[in-house]
From TrEMBL:
Source organism: Chloroflexus islandicus
InterPro entries: Flp_Fap (IPR007047)
Pfam families: Flp_Fap (PF04964)
Protein's name according to its UniProt entry: Pilus assembly protein
Domain of life (superkingdom): Bacteria
Keywords: Membrane, Transmembrane, Transmembrane helix
Transmembrane intervals: 20-43
Length: 54
């Protein structure tokens, strides 16, 4: 019974997809962290431009 429990591979695909999603999330978070200052500056420039228009 114990051998058959560990021999099942039904959840393997789900675990692989979960690991891929975690890897993608880590990459996205890292990219946003590195580019956060640049993106913030762009939005500040846009905001300043919109506020100075009559």
């Amino acid at each position: 019974m114990l051998r058959s429990f560990f021999a099942k591979e039904e959840g393997q695909g789900l675990v692989e997809y979960a690991l891929i999603l975690v890897l993608i999330a880590v990459v996205v978070i890292g990219a946003l962290t590195l580019l956060g200052g640049s993106i913030d500056g762009i939005f500040r420039d846009i905001n300043d431009t919109l506020q100075t228009r009559p």
